[in-house]
Structures are given as C-alpha cells and as structure tokens.
Amino acid sequence: MIPRTPILARFHGCLRLRCAPDSFSYQSLRSHSSRQFSQTFPAQAKKARPKHRNPYVLAQAQQRTAANKVKQAGLQEARKAALGDPVRGYLTSFTQSLTDTVPKAADPFLKSFRDISLSETSPSDSPEKPCLNHYLTPAEVEASLQYSEQLIQPPAPSSKVPRDWSDQENDVDEHAKKHSIATEAIKRIVTLENSTTAERTRANVQRCIEVFGRHNTDKYLKPRARAEANGERAETMPRIGRDTGSSEVQIALLTQKIEKLVTHMEKRTEKGKRVNPTDQHSKRSLRLLVHKRQKLLRYLRRKERGGERWQHAVSLLGLPDGTWKGEITV
Questions:
Q1: Which residues contact 275 (CB under 8 A, 6 or more apart)?
Q2: Burial bucket for residue 319 (CB in 10 Å: 0-12, 13-18, 19+)
C-alpha cells in the first residue's frame, strides 16, 4: 500500500525551486491550501425564483395556443376532404354501374335491339357496348332470333298443294306464339340479371377493356406529344387486337376489384354489426390493390402530363387526388 504523505512534503521541492527564499513561508501556503469550499449538494441549493408574470398575459397566451390548435385541426380536415377518399373516390355513373346487379347499359332489353348501336354515342362519349352474358352482343342475338324465325316459319300457300285457309291461319298464330316464347327464353338466358357473380365480374372486365382500351380511345382522345428524332416524328407500330395492358385499363380493373372488396367488408347486419369483422385476408388484399393502383396512377400522370387520357380515366372512375397523392393508410 502506498504510504500517505502530507501535501506540503510532496510539493516542498517544487515550491522551493519556484519561490524565492525570502518570500516563501509555510504559513502562507497552509492558509492558501486550507481555503474553505462549499460542500452543499446541488439538489439542496436554493432554486432561483421564477420571474413574476402577469396571470392575464398567461391566460391570453393559452387562449391563442388553443385557437391555433383548433385552426390547425380544421385546416388538416379541409386538406383531407379536398384530397377525397383514397380508396373509393367519389361516385360516378360508371362506378355505380359496376356495383349494380344489372348495369344500366348492360341489359339490352330495356330498348329494342335495333335501337342500340354505336351511332348513338358521340365522339366525346365512351364507346361502351351493352354487355350480355355468354360473350354475346345485341346484334348477334337479334340476327339469331331472325334466322330462327325464318327457319320455323310455315310455308306460304301454294296452288299446287290444296290446303284449308283456316289451317294456314292457325299455323301462323302458333308460329308467332312459339317465337315469342323463344324470344322470352333467350332474354332470360343472356341477360345479366339471372347471371352469377363470376359472370357479372367477367362482363365488367369486358366493359372496362372496351371503355378504356386504347384500341377505342385512340379514335377520339389525343395522345401526348412524343419526342421527335432528327426533326421527324417517330413512327408507332399499329395496334393488333384489343388493348388489355395499358395503364388506364389496369387502373379500371383494379378499381372494380377494390369496389367489390369494399362492398364485401362493409356488409352489416340489421343490428348494424359487421358481417366480416375478422376478415384480415380481404383487408390485406384491399391494401395491396389500393397501393398498386396508386403506383399506376402516378405513372400515368407522369407519362401523360395531365393529357386527355389522364382526364378521361380520372373523371370516369371518380378518382380524386387522394388516390395517388401522399401516403394511403387502409
């Protein structure tokens, strides 16, 4: 163990060298070394008294803080409302027809087959065709009904074959009756009112392709300005078949799937309880679809630069800025 030596003996040599013999004294060194220091703990020290503040001024500051908080909350709610619903957007006639049991433009028997044609749609309108079940069109059904009517039509009276006129009239009446029954049966078979959910989904997919596919929209929507090489516009390859892979079509198909999932998750009983409260699989699928649509919307907006294709897709599908701006939480 190191022996304990007094401080004076330890520093005696160095002090003797630095100090003159006449001015050095042990009493002066002892007086300086035995200086008293405060041994009070900092926590026990007296705290500085706060400055006096007017209570009226404090109350005014608290009121201003509360008013600013209320104002900020109102501004945040207004911005959120301006962005719109990031999942469902706003309701349009097209999105409403996707969720209906029978779309308004899908049942051709609301009109005559001959009254439905593409000539009714103007260039500004979407070239949407009425949807039927089993991949049929109104023109095909009308042509088939006319051909079947001609096949079973009773023969015309001939002078070579003697026949009673009463029998001829009975055959004509029976033929008209059978044709009306067959027309009603075909109507019930091809209409979407009696179809399954999978068949309605298939019909909605076909409608999205016909409305947003570029094989139709290129006829009345101007594409964006393309880059020119050496002062000449680059030639584009002609499109073959229907367009099923463009961003507009994929966004429309995702919107149809999202609408279906949201309707499934919002089902409630008569007492107001949710029918599927623990369906986490559908919730995860909905989150993935919403974020995938957000990426496609950002891509389409960047490529089209707010052109007619962008406006056409957003206006028909009812997609506000909240569907592609910022962060979406589901």
A1: 267, 268, 269
A2: buried
Q: For residue range 306-321, what is the model confidence (pLDDT) as tens digits?
A: 789 999 999 999 999 9
Residue with tokens 């949201």: 262
Please give the structure tokens belonging to residue 142.
């009308």
Residue located via tokens 């015309």: 156
Question: What does the mean pLDDT of the chain come to?
Answer: 77
Using one digit for the tens of pLDDT, what is the confidence trace for 175-199?
A: 889 899 999 999 999 888 888 888 8
Q: How far apart are CA 176 and CA 281, in angstroms?
A: 54
Q: Which two tokens stand for residue 150?
A: 């001609």
Distance, CA of 132 to CA of 135 (rounded, Å): 6
Cα(174)–Cα(135) distance, integer angstroms:
31
